[in-house]
Amino acid sequence: MTTIAVDAMGGDYGIEVTVPAAVSAATHHREHEIILVGLKDQIEDQLGKARPSNLRVEHASEQVEMDESPALALRKKKDSSMRVAINLIKDGEADACVSAGNTGALMATARFVLKTLPGIDRPSLVTTIPNMRPAGHVHVLDLGANVDSPAELLVQFGIMGSILVQSVEKVDRPKVALLNIGHEDIKGNDTIKAAAKFMRESNLNFVGFVEGDGIYTSDVDVIVCDGFVGNVAIKTSEGLAQMIKHILREEVQANMLTRLAGLASMPVLKRLGRRMDPRNYNGAPLVGLQGTVIKSHGGTDSTGFEAAIVEAVKVAATNVPERIRDGLGPLLGEQ
Amino acid sequence: MTTIAVDAMGGDYGIEVTVPAAVSAATHHREHEIILVGLKDQIEDQLGKARPSNLRVEHASEQVEMDESPALALRKKKDSSMRVAINLIKDGEADACVSAGNTGALMATARFVLKTLPGIDRPSLVTTIPNMRPAGHVHVLDLGANVDSPAELLVQFGIMGSILVQSVEKVDRPKVALLNIGHEDIKGNDTIKAAAKFMRESNLNFVGFVEGDGIYTSDVDVIVCDGFVGNVAIKTSEGLAQMIKHILREEVQANMLTRLAGLASMPVLKRLGRRMDPRNYNGAPLVGLQGTVIKSHGGTDSTGFEAAIVEAVKVAATNVPERIRDGLGPLLGEQ
């Protein structure tokens, strides 16, 4: 049995999304337990009579706002739903926690409460992105938890990503690549060049550089980048997808022929939409901590948030923190 | 009359693409002159009898390879088509040059031969990206010419982008934004924060931060970023577009219904393709030099390369270098 603590107050929609998602996850996964953390009265109201026996509520009197400073949230809100959910891991009451709340605050709080693993300087946010390779997706880190990552940190990201994919996806020697602005060794900034050198000397299955398009087209398992760059890449993709939808809608309205074409193309566009639905890929592990923390997209709906809870169960079951602790030295090539 | 020097040997396809593009541009723009620079015999062969009177050939005995080190190209290939084309600007024989060759070599050679404008530390590559705003596109710089750009350089990029858009697009006070990983002032790395401070103190029409999705969805005229980040953003977009095409093709093949739907949706997809066709946006000015240099995508066809030649005529006609020279001090807020 795995127990998941859910920050019920986090995200753009709070309990309206988190509570139905938790109820559905608990109903579909009777073997696991879910603890909804937040304002008890509000959660109880939202729950109504839909309460599976493997779901319980833990009160927390405060909540972290989406635009609140992480430092302030950490210092002032010791009874926030986010903090209490993370405390449950530390106290051994939960195996993992899920939050759709303020990313910076989640990262700062998780790091403060759970601490990083020995040898890991900073935790990193790993996201799964759908792509063209046979596996259907790639893992990319860091996704905005760390800006200005030095070469040593990028190597740690590579090792953590490799161990995560090996554990959760059962890939034997995950192929790890560095995101760069060219394939050739002379390309990139000093940080990327140094990171590539370290990775080549490590026991990682390092396959070299990929460029931005490689996120969607290359056949690697893990792509490593600085958090600033990773965040820009993922947000740029969101913007492009939004624009394509917008133009398609406009062009369908162009004339009678295009309107008919638009109608006729629904089955194909629906299939495309399903394959690229970000809700299917929701739930980004924050790796490098002494505990399992999963970040959900803040604006997701209950289907997406449930996917993040299921991801938490999956990651917690494989005990990624312990594997990172054991694997770090050997992968770095240390004796 | 504007004279454009064309590096005939550059790009993935060399004279097969550049010569027909130059012939077509010369035929459509009788008022301008085109100089094709490269191996004279090969160019003459490719030209055959199709030779408009406003097109001439200038011999250059060498060519820079696409994967050649920029430093080596600069030192060893003094008679390369790229170098000779740029020399024509310096000698006053051409108003601008266009090359689809090695970006690093083009940048290094242009900088060495033409020199940067007073007060500009490094030239920057500006690209035009189609987006959702009424203007239909946005200008983004830097696109890979500079990695690790310090804050002062980002401000110079903002000023050069602003002057380019003002000159070529006749926008009065272009809205300039910085690419960041959040809208709030506390987000981003130290470089971005410092650049934002400088831009706020300048006379630029600085409107704050946009995130990656803002490239496609926000209503600003100029987006400024480090060359590494800009390159990743644009390449990531290319990869996503490629994946969407790939999935659409797969899903159309799924069953009889989807095949019919695919057939029926052709008119809409064609319109979408036309609006997003990168060939329409080919030709990225390298700004900050004492001369006008336009970089074409290396893999473009003759339609795309002709667009780059036309862009060169447009940019050369507005005399962007002189405007940057005159505008830099006032926009920085200097007396």
Question: What topology emerges from the helices and strands here?
Answer:
2 copies of one chain form a homodimer.
Chain A: E1 3-7, H1 15-28, E2 33-38, H2 40-47, E3 55-59, H3 70-76, H4 81-90, E4 96-99, H5 103-114, E5 124-125, E6 127-130, E7 137-141, H6 151-169, E8 175-179, H7 190-201, E9 205-210, H8 214-217, E10 222-224, H9 227-252, H10 256-264, H11 266-276, E11 284-287, E12 292-295, H12 302-317, H13 320-332
Parallel strand pairs in A: 1-2, 1-4, 2-3, 4-12, 7-10, 8-9, 8-10
Antiparallel strand pairs in A: 5-11, 6-7, 11-12
Helix pairs in contact in A: 1-2, 1-12, 3-5, 4-5, 6-7, 6-13, 9-10
Describe the protein in words.
- The structure is a homodimer of 335-residue chains.
- Chain A is α/β, with parallel strands linked by helices.
- Chain A folds into 2 domains: 1-120 and 288-319, 3-Layer(aba) Sandwich (Isopropylmalate Dehydrogenase), CATH 3.40.718.10; 125-279, Isopropylmalate Dehydrogenase (3-Layer(aba) Sandwich), CATH 3.40.718.10.
- In chain A, 48% of the residues lie in helices and 16% in strands.
- Chain A is built from 13 helices and 12 strands.
- The first copy, chain A, has helices at residues 15-28, 40-47, 70-76, 81-90, 103-114, 151-169, 190-201, 214-217, 227-252, 256-264, 266-276, 302-317, 320-332, and strands at 3-7, 33-38, 55-59, 96-99, 124-125, 127-130, 137-141, 175-179, 205-210, 222-224, 284-287, 292-295.
- Chain A has a 7-stranded mixed beta sheet, sandwiched between helices. In chain A, strands 6-7-10-8-9 form a 5-stranded mixed beta sheet.
- In chain A, a hairpin with a 4-residue loop joins strand 11 and strand 12 (292-295).
- The longest helix of chain A has 26 residues, at 227-252.
- Chain A starts with a strand and ends with a helix.
- The mean pLDDT of chain A is 92.
- At the A-B interface, helix 8, helix 9, helix 10 and helix 11 of A face helix 8, helix 9, helix 10 and helix 11 of B.
